[in-house]
Every structure is written in C-alpha cells, then in structure tokens.
# Entry
Amino acid sequence: MRAEDARKPDSVLHDVTAAETLEQLDHEPPKKPINRAFYWSSLLRARLLDAWTAEFLQAHPNATVLHLGCGLDSHALRLAPFWSGAGGGANAIRRIDVDLLEVVALRKQVVPAPEQGDYSLVESSVTDDAWLDEVPPDRPTLVVIEGLMPYLRPEDGKRLVRRVVERFPSGQIMFNIPGRWFRRLQRFNRPISTTGAVFYNSMDDPKDLTAVHPSLRVETVLRIRETPGRELMPWHLRAWLWLLSWTPGLRTAASYYRFDL
# Structure
C-alpha cells in the first residue's frame, strides 16, 4: 500500500523506499484490488505516527527511538533528517529497530540502513527480556509500536509496556489498536483474516493501560474518524467513518494512543 501510494503524483506518504523494497522481493501482486479502507487507514496511520515521532524528536534531539516489530517499514528513512541530532556524534539520535530473526535477515537484504545517527537492528521477539535490558536508559525514549499491538496477547502487551515504563525515566509510547467489538468481528476484516493472522488484543479506554503503571499518563487519544488527513479519503470512506462514529461498539473500531512515560 505504501509502495502504491509512492508511485502516485499526489502521494500521501512519499515512501519511495517502500516501492524500491517491493521491487526487490519475490512478490506476486494481489489478484484483487487493494481494499481501499485498509489502504487509507494504513497510510494515514503511518503519516500520523511519523508526525508524532517528528514532534518528539524536535523536543528531544538526542533521544532514543525504539521501533518494535519494524518489519520492512522505512519509518527510519522517512524521518532521516532528524537522525543527525544536535550536531551529530554523541548527540545523534539513537535508533533501534526490533523484529524476529527471519524478518531482520530479510530487512538487511532489501531495506537500507539510515546513513546518519546511531542505528542498530536487533533480532528478537519484542516480548523477550534480554534486548530491552541492553538499551541504555540514559535518554528520553520514544517507543513506536505500529501495527503490532493487536497481535500480542493482552498480558504480553501490558507486560511490555510495564517494562518500558520501568526501564526509561522519560519519553513516550505510541501505538494503534482495535476496539473490543472490532476485534470480535475480525473475521469480517478480509485484508487481515485472509492472511490467517489473528487479533488477540484490543482496547477501548486508555485507562485500561494507565492501570499498568502509575507513571503512565495519557497524552493523546485519536479514534480512526479523527485521523488527520481523513479529508484526503474518498467521500464514501469518509461517510463510512461518520457512520462508525455513531455506531455503539464500533466508535473505537481503531484508535491511536500516545502515552507519556
């Protein structure tokens, strides 16, 4: 979806790396047209988390950024102007991308590493303890969890957040997650259900997470109908979002959360 968008003159995300990455893969184009609702929600989600990341790095030019479940996402490259930090060297942004061994192996082949900043790629499940224990807690830390939280068991997701809060004295954590009813209806979400993937985790109220640790504070909650850039969507998808906003149980179909540590 990011690759398709990048090829358009009116691109939303301008993720040229996504198109270049896809060309290197043994990838068979989908036989059916891409689901437009899924297409737009994915693009605007990435755009939003990019904007939140840029906002954090403007306030903390020597931060640590952890991207958990990075996959083949070019988040680091889209935000490359920030990686040099305040003068480079010891003040450069520390960037750590984390994913499973086989994903990291593929990523090293097809996604270029950022040329600036202090960058490392870690082979691990995000739910393992060892990798987080190796990250120095000496800087404000931003934890980006895009597209991953729904697939973690609820207890694993909460434990991960708790360990992050206990590890780093300041920073933010941001992620997307479906609501409870949307998770229950996931078999009707064809772009996901046809892959065999399963949503285990959901959240309707940020209080469900702030209860995990007393120092966790809500910074921003956006429902999918409030996503910046929604005016770029076709009218029928905007109408669908409006309908969701008035449907009990589906008002929180998808949400974007930002918490202060």
About this structure: The mean pLDDT is 91. The two ends are 32 Å apart (CA to CA).
